[in-house]
Write a structure and sequence with these properties.
single chain; alpha+beta; Immunoglobulin-like; 4 helices; binds zinc ion
């Protein structure tokens, strides 16, 4: 009987294989095993035993994949492949000139920090779309408002933003510095995204900026000028969740206010809403469901009257000086 040498190459010079190596046997077995698991269930309707075997093998293969995904080898492979794929997507995005982009969606989590008497740092987060080749830029618009929050009949001044102050931040946030705003004015700043397919809607949040004068009444420059004041406000027609500040459109604001069982001790002026669906479910699941004012929630109702978009107390006053 001949010895079976696993490491021996068994291909002849003419390309004919005399004996399979153990590696090719294992490879063939794995291919057959994966092919068998990937076959649709409808192929085994004629045999219950075969169907059960197929289901069991498929479950075990999925479990094996799940465990492998947590292992160091898979993480190492993913760590090596991710930069390559990111670079490849960036090249395709640049070469396509935005032709592979999806339709823009409004950015969210807009916030602001004043950095001078007429300068504001804006920070926002783009909405992630399931398209690796999506490309977009942003338009910042501002215009004066009255101190009472009423819009003045003035056009918006727009500024195109195509570079991120944060560079390629891992969390995907964008930032830019808006300077040259009018002195001693109350302004509203809003944001949208834009690409070849057009603009998105405006952000659900707006920033109210109160800039300061650079000159004193006698015409001399202000010594050590303070920073402008900023606060977050909701866009017209948009309310924010009382608990998590998620923007809520008018359509989603029905039955989102809590009716408390008794008058709360803390926050007697609390409107008890609106709550987003997630917060409402979370509050309802509590043993003693409470509003943010600690009032015991009895039931959920529609608001007695449509609330005017108001300044958010939870995210407001990012910068008060
Ligand atoms: Zn919420
Ligand atoms: Zn309340």
């Amino acid at each position: 009987m001949e010895d079976w040498d696993d490491d021996e190459f068994v291909s002849t010079g003419s390309g004919r294989f005399d004996r399979p190596t153990s590696a090719s046997v294992w490879l063939g077995f794995i291919v057959v095993f994966i092919s068998f698991c990937l076959l649709p269930e409808s192929c085994f309707t004629w045999s219950e035993a075969l169907w059960r075997t197929h289901q069991r093998l498929r479950r075990e293969m999925l479990q094996l994949l799940r465990l492998s995904a947590r292992g160091p080898v898979f993480k190492l492979l993913a760590g090596c492949l991710q930069p390559v794929l990111t670079l490849l997507a960036g090249c395709v995005r640049a070469c396509s000139c935005g032709r592979l982009s999806s339709r823009c969606r409004p950015p969210h989590s807009l916030c602001a920090k004043a950095s001078g008497p007429t300068e504001v740092m804006l920070i926002w987060t783009p909405l992630r779309l399931p398209n690796a080749f999506h490309d977009e830029r942003y338009v910042i618009a501002w215009r004066p408002h009255s101190d009472s929050g009423e819009p003045l009949d003035l056009p918006w001044t727009e500024q195109l933003i195509d570079s991120n102050l944060y560079g390629t931040a891992q969390d995907g946030r964008w930032g830019t510095l808006v300077d040259g705003l009018p002195e001693a004015a109350c302004l509203r700043v809003r944001l949208c995204s834009v690409n070849r397919l057009g603009r998105s809607k405006w952000s659900h949040e707006e920033v109210e900026v109160i800039t300061l004068a650079l000159l004193q009444e006698d015409g001399r420059p202000v010594q050590r000028p303070a920073c402008a004041r900023t606060r977050m406000v909701s866009a017209p027609g948009i309310q924010l969740c009382l608990q998590c500040s998620t923007p809520l459109s008018a359509k989603k604001c029905s039955r989102t206010h809590a009716k408390v069982a008794c008058r709360p001790i803390f926050g007697p002026d609390c409107p008890h809403g609106p709550f987003c669906e997630r917060c409402r479910n979370r509050v309802s699941e509590q043993a003693l469901p409470c509003c943010v004012c600690r009032g015991l929630v009895d039931t959920w109702v529609e608001p007695a009257k449509p609330l005017q978009p108001a300044a958010t107390s939870s995210v407001a006053a990012l910068n008060s000086s």
